[in-house]
Design goal:
Layout (H helix, E strand, L loop, with lengths): L5 E5 L1 E3 L8 E3 L2 H9 L3 E5 L5 H8 L4 E4 L23 H17 L3 E4 L1 H9 L4 E2 L2 H4 L15 E3 L1 E2 L4 H6 L5 E3 L5 E2 L6 E6 L5 E6 L6 E4 L13 H15 L9
Parallel strand pairs: 1-4, 1-5, 5-6, 6-14
Antiparallel strand pairs: 2-3, 7-11, 8-10, 9-12, 12-13, 13-14
Length: 250
């Protein structure tokens, strides 16, 4: 009997204020996309203990790292830009700790938005702090008025992104001001926007299925084709359960 892969999703977090308690939350698009792709989603609160995190991760078949506010550059040895909108420290503490364990355990992972950026910095890469200043000639990657802002996507031949999108014209949503600068060792850029900004990454480690997208295939502004990324991820996780590991075909 086929056993659906169990996919963990980290949650966003807000501290308590004078008129409400602290709470965790996640956009329904993430777990709906996992369900539609044939997986069973499990939402993960920001557990602080690495031992408890490992106990949780050992019961999962894969993890989706969701988008959200910015990572604190100070933690990676960089100065904060004025545009940084940092995530709550409790979430960032948990996410960074969990990402280390995911890498150690070689647990399949799909990072979206800041989730992809977390994979990159955790594995030895770094980030542009603010695209308009770091890359003055870049296309607009964020529009405060149009939440459905899109730009082109150039996929790299032989990658999972090419398998999904093919070689025709591709456009994806875009709502970020930070981006990958130096790519982590063991990863390739599998898609870029026309200005060269990295929009997707894939692991080339033979024993680790890990992918990331800067754009958001779970969002209302995503195309029907974007759902195929979740399908490929869940299928890759299932293949891992069956004894195989999917890596980028380069």
């Amino acid at each position: 009997m086929f056993s659906k892969p169990v996919i963990g999703l980290n949650a966003n977090f807000r501290n308590a204020t004078h008129d409400r308690p602290a709470f965790s939350f996640i956009s329904a698009g993430y777990y709906d996309a996992v369900i539609a792709a044939g997986g069973i989603p499990v939402v993960l609160p920001p557990v602080s203990s690495p031992e408890d995190q490992q106990a949780v991760l050992s019961r999962l078949d894969g993890v989706v790292l969701i988008g959200g506010p910015d990572l604190d550059p100070n933690r990676d040895g960089f100065m904060r830009h004025a545009s940084i909108r940092m995530m709550e420290p409790r979430r960032e503490d948990a996410d960074r700790s969990m990402m280390k364990l995911i890498a150690q355990m070689r647990l399949p992972v799909f990072g979206i938005g800041v989730g992809m950026q977390l994979i990159n910095v955790a594995m030895g890469g770094n980030l542009f702090m603010h695209i308009p200043e770091d890359l003055p000639g870049a296309l607009p990657h964020h529009d405060t008025i149009d939440k459905h802002h899109r730009h082109g996507l150039d996929v790299v031949p032989g990658t999972l992104m090419e398998k999904i999108f093919g070689d025709g014209e591709v456009r994806v949503n875009s709502s970020h001001h930070m981006a990958i600068d130096e790519l982590a060792p063991g990863f390739i850029a599998s898609a870029r926007s026309p200005d060269g900004v990295i929009e997707a990454i894939e692991s080339i480690h033979e024993d680790w299925f890990a992918i990331g997208t800067q754009f958001h295939p779970e969002a209302e502004s995503a195309s029907a084709l974007d759902q195929r990324i979740f399908e490929e991820f869940v299928e890759g996780v299932a293949a891992g359960k069956a004894g195989g590991v999917r890596v980028a075909a380069v």
